[in-house]
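Hi R.,

Here's the chain you asked about this morning:
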Amino acid sequence: MEPSNFRTAILAVLAVGVAALMAPPPAVALETGAREAILLDTETGTVLLDKDADVSMPPASMSKIMTVYLVFERLKDGRLSLDDEFLVSEKAWRKGGSKMFVKVGNRVRIEDLLRGVIVQSGNDACIVLAEGISGSEEAFAEEMTRKAAALGMTGSTFANATGWPDPDQRMTARDLATLAQRIILDFPEYYHYFSETEFVWNDIRQPNRNPILYASVGADGLKTGHTEEAGYGLTASAVQDDRRLVLVLSGLGSEKARAEESERLLNWGFREFGNYALVKPGEVVDEAPVWLGETATVAAVVPDGLTLTLPRKARAEMEVKVVYETPVTAPVAAGQEVGKMIVSFPDGDPIVVSLQAADAVDRLGPIGRISAGLRYLVFGAQ
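And the predicted structure, written out as tokens:
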């Protein structure tokens, strides 16, 4: 007969650890003049601000981040090198809008083309890269859409490499945030191009249009966008005290509004929220009771650790408890769920984390099981 008692242990919060496991919804409301917006912490995935982040929108030149992603991918796997050169077609040369000012018939190094896209937002440079990689801009746009799907960007489709207005050129703010995180995570060796503040090509010096690079918020990328339909937008990232935030804004009315709102929201995210490491990866949280096992308990751990992003004022009122509905019955496999850790804090939904057995526990033999049963009958649960 197995005991059916319910055991709950209240734990002190541990101010240690590093790895993220899951995150609460934002606990602080903030208004923004952007039509669509999202602000998130990249370590925990916590969304601090969400305004229509899943609404389909024209991304304008922010879609160039996907163009750059596909180039970085080929550089990393060796299909391209920075010194490879692509031919400038007449189509690329004639393209309007923002330009790098490449000349038709010239061959341009990929590294220069990347700077032309990232720093100067050159539509011509995008087309040169697209044609050099896929043969045509249309074929490259199809690859952009496939890659977006592979990255989990379910609201993104592409008709071109530039962000030029097109009914089929659509993204969501959440997808742009996902893409920004993947650029940073997947290509740390190339991400530095996004922090360059100017680039000179064809004797023309052009500054990076990203306003947040010139603010004192720790920004190091990524890309602006603007069309009449899209308004003024920005996908940005900044780091303070080893904590990285990603911000996407769209639909603002002016360059000034874009600059001011991006700085305001990033400062708010760093100021009002903090990351709190509760459990180290593999750290023993508690000893879970085991029924009919060769040991009476097994160490309960959170294998990946737990770090939470919370409003700073909620930190002092946080509660953490461990719950076992019944003792787990032996045999217990290493990695088997043995209980739950529940984290509660004001104005937020509780966070429930799986606790897993650190080691295996074998089942008692027949005599041991009989003895355990007799002890339970005589003394009850212990």
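The longest helix spans residues 255-272.

Let me know if you need anything else.
M.
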